[in-house]
Amino acid sequence: MSDLHKFPVIPVIVLDDANDAEPLAEALLAGGLNIIEVTFRTAAAAESIERIAKAFPEMQVGAGTVVTPEQAKRAIDAGSKFGLAPGTDPETIAYFKQQGVPFIPGIMTPSDIQAAVKAGCTSLKFFPAGAAGGPKLLKAMAAPYANLGIKFCPTGGVTLDNMNDYLSLPEVFAIGGTWLATKAQIQAKEWGTITQQVKDALAKASA
Ligand SMILES: O=C(O)C(=O)C[C@H](O)[C@H](O)COP(=O)(O)O
């Protein structure tokens, strides 16, 4: 897991066409980002992960929206080096653990946090961060668990404008979002725009 904590920004990607996988990964790498979360929301996800893992071994490619053990298997078989989900499912967590692949389940309440910790996870996604109450909610909710060493990755409504409100919290190891490479930009093959968005986000994260 510590590897994942090296990246302050995680692009959450929805790919409809696996042919876009390599140029997209190239655009992210050109912006300085070696990490990508390809969500299991489309039929192209597994093939996209496989293609990125093969073409760019320097890229930490992971699977997002992994909500069942069956999807977890497909994600790992395709070459995912980590997995994430919007929620906490004990069986999916168990599958990742069994395979020795880091997994970051999603939480939105103290009960979710406790369920994830009980299942052995201490790196958690806070989703949907903005709609749930933003940095203020996360700070208040994380306080009682400070002794457990839990770290969070807020996603959902995170943008260039508010990302540092989250990153400035000591319990936040990264933020994620679709704004770094939107579905529309990928469909329109706006690779230069995506590279620039990544550069802007990384510059802001280190500011
Ligand atoms: O699919 C997952 O694994 C998730 O946890 C959800 C995503 O992180 C959010 O859908 C990103 O939300 P936006 O950046 O506001 O579009």
Automatic annotation (TrEMBL):
Protein's name according to its UniProt entry: 2-dehydro-3-deoxy-phosphogluconate aldolase
E.C. number(s) listed in UniProt: 4.1.2.14
PROSITE patterns noted in UniProt: ALDOLASE_KDPG_KHG_1, ALDOLASE_KDPG_KHG_2
Biological pathway: Carbohydrate acid metabolism; 2-dehydro-3-deoxy-D-gluconate degradation; D-glyceraldehyde 3-phosphate and pyruvate from 2-dehydro-3-deoxy-D-gluconate: step 2/2
CDD domains: KDPG_aldolase (cd00452)
InterPro entries the record matches: Aldlse_KDPG_KHG, Aldolase_TIM, KDPG/KHG_AS_1, KDPG/KHG_AS_2
A molecular function (GO) term: 2-dehydro-3-deoxy-phosphogluconate aldolase activity
Record flagged with keyword Lyase: yes
Keyword set includes Lyase: yes
Self-association and partners: Homotrimer.
SUPFAM superfamilies the record matches: Aldolase
Catalytic activity: 2-dehydro-3-deoxy-6-phospho-D-gluconate = D-glyceraldehyde 3-phosphate + pyruvate
Family note: Belongs to the KHG/KDPG aldolase family.
Root EC class: lyase
Organism name: Coraliomargarita algicola
